[in-house]
Design a protein that fits this description.
With 265 residues, this protein is mostly helical. The chain has 2 domains: 49 residues, no CATH class; 205 residues, Orthogonal Bundle (MetI-like fold), CATH 1.10.3720. It has 11 helices and no strands. It starts with 5 loop residues before the first helix and ends with a helix.
Length: 265
């Protein structure tokens, strides 16, 4: 820690908890409390119950959770593949080329998500790529929205790589594809796993573009949460939100274990 004195550490801890609790912890605790309540007319919820979770782990809710998991997994894999390819290709370009590639991949992040959703809707609404009304248009939109984060994460890792390993392998006669597969990608594995976790988490919570694109048989869980709260079922929506948070956290914990093992190697 940068602060070594006991008084300084106490001050830092005080400032941290003063900012963390109101901004981050309390909203999450409110959602968890609402998911277990039947009434909330005063300062605290009342009527503890588990009925909301019973509805959140069966029927349409399980289908929506599965839809979110499949969408996030496929979009994260595609984003990681495209982002890694772009980062490795941009590393061989000059400064202007790298800036151009970064700008192109960051463009979907610089505009509102609804604009990206509208762009995907227009792009895939006529032959030969008629995908509207299918699950693939949702997956494509999620991929477009999260690829920038994968590309930026891998680009930063590529810039920190020591070229000595690549040069030594090439000097021993290794072909470029072998150097990439056996030398460069293993060194990038911690950053790749971190980028995959970030893309997965962002895709699991995406709502704006999804609302414009999802077909009736491919409704992700954030859309169902919005629909429940829009109908006035705030407690059921809170239970669904807790399920979404818990599932995302479990996946991120698994990814973090892979990242730790990769860093150790």
């Amino acid at each position: 820690m940068l602060v070594h004195s006991r008084a300084g550490r106490r001050a830092v801890h005080t400032v941290f908890f003063t900012l963390f609790v109101p901004l981050f912890a309390i909203p999450l605790l409110v959602v968890v409390a609402a998911s277990c309540a039947t009434h909330w007319s005063g300062a605290f919820p009342s009527g503890p119950t588990g009925r909301h979770y019973e509805a959140a782990v069966q029927g349409a809710s399980v289908h929506a959770l599965t839809t979110s998991l499949v969408t996030a997994a496929v979009a994260s894999a595609l984003a990681l593949l495209l982002g890694t390819w772009a980062a490795l290709a941009a590393a061989a370009l000059g400064p202007r080329g790298r800036r151009l590639v970064d700008a192109l991949f960051m463009l979907p992040v610089a505009v509102p998500c609804v604009v990206v959703g509208l762009a995907v809707l227009v792009a895939f609404s006529s032959p030969p790529l008629l995908l509207n009304g299918t699950r693939w248009v949702v997956i494509i939109a999620h991929t477009v929205l999260v690829t920038a984060f994968a590309q930026q994460s891998v680009s930063a890792a590529v810039a920190r790589l020591d070229p000595m390993y690549e040069q030594a392998a090439a000097g021993l006669g290794a072909r470029p594809w072998y150097v990439l597969w056996r030398v460069k990608l293993p060194l990038l594995l911690p950053s790749l796993s971190a980028a995959a976790g970030l893309c997965f988490a962002l895709s699991m919570g995406e709502l704006s573009a999804t609302m414009m694109l999802y077909p009736p048989d491919w409704m992700p869980l954030p859309v169902q949460i919005f629909a429940a709260t829009d109908r006035g079922s705030l407690f059921t929506g809170s239970a669904l939100a807790v399920v979404l948070m818990g599932t995302t956290l479990l996946v991120l914990l698994a990814v973090s274990r892979l990242r730790t093992r990769a860093s150790y190697r």
